[in-house]
């Protein structure tokens, strides 16, 4: 057996307690063999975790990873104008090579900040899948579909591509890649298409992921035209099952929260994007109280503007308190759970907890920094004080992706250089 030992650290357990322990990993199986004191000193490889906190790898449950290319490309606008005036015209000019460059840059950023799994909606998905395969992370990938403004043939081709991608890449990268069908949202895909698309996906056991209730501009037209709330419409369309998950859920009323809880549909909270686009404040504590599965995501780097899940935890805690008008709302253990087990459950990928027999997906956070001293409460530090740059080692599926802050699976400098070239050429074209 080929083993990896993460030695001498403190380990965050699923019940949010912290214990002094080593973690022993079966690298062939990609699973955790043991957690405890003084484990196998003869392991094939050892990662030093002295003075560090070993946490589950963070799970970024909603992203558009290739959008790192558009980081800082257009800011300070509301969602609709931002997409139509800036982002969609730029995306129309993106080549498969551009998407590959953006994805690799984003994956480097994720590995460096302790993220080991993510869910992603974009296009040119084969390029993203190839980058994920190389990078060593886990992902649930899909091709995003918009039918608005397209003729029937183009709309159907977009849907077919989404289903084809979901079929072809499920189980790729040694099983680390899973897929979903991804209608962009309830307003950008017309009902006639949505109904059939969702039914076709579910008939093949493919889950559905989409944006919903992100802004009032997206909710009001559905209420006006249909006389019902968006998530009641989604339920009618069959896209509110326990396998499906939606991004945002900012403007949801109590009845919609009940629908989500009953169905077991995951909600991915994206606080930074919601603040930056002034979309609104999701009622996260209410969702948690109702028993909804809540995950955490950065959304794309163009609306964040980074992929750092530590930032996201802090934002989720801060915004959750403001939304609830209650400082005890969305507490530190809640956001840590959202970024780990909650996200993993929402997108249905392994990981999110350090337990024997579970996936060996973890991040080792260096606590030896002024902003993390003294160590009064390490869960509090994770939620409020730690940064992505505090991550020292990252492991996914038993493989070391970053050791002592050096990314091993991708070339960091080359990824930055390719992204710079890609955006320079894109700016000339758009
Ligand atoms: N096939 C579609 C692309 C959809 S991919 C997913 C899309 O979601 C967009 N996006 C990024 N962030 C958000 C958000 O917060 N809300 C809605 N859409 C977003 C992103 O720019 C990308 O165009 C087409 O032909 O346009
Ligand atoms: Zn999004």
From TrEMBL:
Gene3D superfamilies: Metal-dependent hydrolases, Urease, subunit C, domain 1. Its EC number is 3.5.4.28, 3.5.4.31. Zn(2+) binds at residues 62, 64, 211, 299. GO terms for molecular function: 5'-methylthioadenosine deaminase activity; metal ion binding; S-adenosylhomocysteine deaminase activity. Coiled coil: none annotated. It catalyses: S-methyl-5'-thioadenosine + H2O + H(+) = S-methyl-5'-thioinosine + NH4(+); S-adenosyl-L-homocysteine + H2O + H(+) = S-inosyl-L-homocysteine + NH4(+). InterPro entries: Amidohydro-rel (IPR006680), Deaminase_MtaD/DadD (IPR023512), Metal-dep_hydrolase_composite (IPR011059), Metal_Hydrolase (IPR032466), MTA/SAH_deaminase (IPR050287). It comes from the Archaea. Its cofactor is Zn(2+). Binds 1 zinc ion per subunit. It is an enzyme of class 3 (hydrolase). HAMAP family: MTA_SAH_deamin. Catalyzes the deamination of 5-methylthioadenosine and S-adenosyl-L-homocysteine into 5-methylthioinosine and S-inosyl-L-homocysteine, respectively. Is also able to deaminate adenosine. PANTHER family: AMIDOHYDROLASE-RELATED DOMAIN-CONTAINING PROTEIN (PTHR43794:SF11), AMINOHYDROLASE SSNA-RELATED (PTHR43794). This is 5-methylthioadenosine/S-adenosylhomocysteine deaminase. It comes from Haloferax sulfurifontis ATCC BAA-897. The gene is mtaD.
């Amino acid at each position: 057996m080929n083993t990896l030992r993460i030695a001498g650290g403190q380990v965050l357990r699923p019940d949010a307690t912290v214990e002094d322990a080593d973690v022993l990993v079966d690298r062939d199986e990609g699973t955790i063999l043991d957690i405890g004191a003084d484990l196998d000193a003869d392991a094939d490889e050892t990662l030093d975790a002295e003075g560090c906190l070993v946490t589950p790898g963070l799970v970024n449950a909603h992203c558009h990873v290739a959008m790192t290319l558009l980081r800082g490309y257009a800011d300070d606008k509301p969602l609709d104008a931002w997409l139509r005036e800036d982002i969609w015209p730029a995306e129309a000019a993106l080549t498969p090579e551009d998407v590959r460059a953006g994805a690799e840059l984003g994956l480097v950023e994720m590995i460096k900040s302790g993220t080991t799994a993510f869910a992603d909606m974009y296009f040119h998905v084969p390029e993203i899948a190839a980058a994920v395969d190389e990078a060593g992370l886990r992902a649930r990938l899909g091709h995003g579909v918009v039918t608005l403004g397209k003729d029937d043939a183009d709309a159907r081709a977009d849907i077919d591509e989404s289903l084809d991608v979901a079929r072809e890449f499920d189980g790729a990268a040694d099983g680390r890649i899973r897929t979903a069908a991804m209608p962009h949202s309830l307003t950008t895909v017309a009902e006639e298409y949505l109904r059939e698309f969702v039914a076709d996906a579910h008939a093949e056991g493919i889950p559905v992921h989409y944006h919903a209730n992100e802004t009032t501009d997206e909710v009001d037209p559905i209420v006006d035209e249909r006389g019902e709330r968006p998530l009641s419409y989604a339920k009618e369309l069959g896209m509110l099952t326990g396998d499906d998950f939606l991004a945002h859920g900012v403007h949801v009323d109590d009845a919609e929260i009940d629908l989500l809880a009953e169905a077991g549909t995951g909600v991915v909270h994206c606080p930074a994007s919601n603040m930056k686009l002034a979309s609104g404040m999701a009622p996260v504590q209410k969702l948690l109280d109702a028993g909804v599965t809540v995950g955490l995501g950065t959304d794309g780097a163009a609306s964040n503007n980074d992929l750092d899940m530590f930032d996201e935890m802090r934002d989720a805690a801060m915004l959750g308190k403001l939304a609830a008008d209650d400082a005890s709302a969305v507490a530190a253990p809640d956001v840590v759970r959202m970024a780990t087990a909650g996200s993993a459950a929402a997108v249905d990928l392994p990981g999110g907890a350090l337990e024997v027999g579970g996936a060996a997906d973890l991040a080792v956070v260096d606590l030896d920094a002024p902003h993390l001293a003294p160590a009064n409460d390490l869960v509090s530090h994770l939620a409020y004080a730690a940064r992505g740059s505090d991550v020292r080692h990252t492991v996914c599926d038993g493989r070391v992706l970053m050791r002592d802050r050096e990314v091993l699976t991708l070339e960091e400098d080359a990824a930055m250089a390719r992204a710079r070239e890609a955006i320079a050429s894109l700016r000339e074209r758009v």
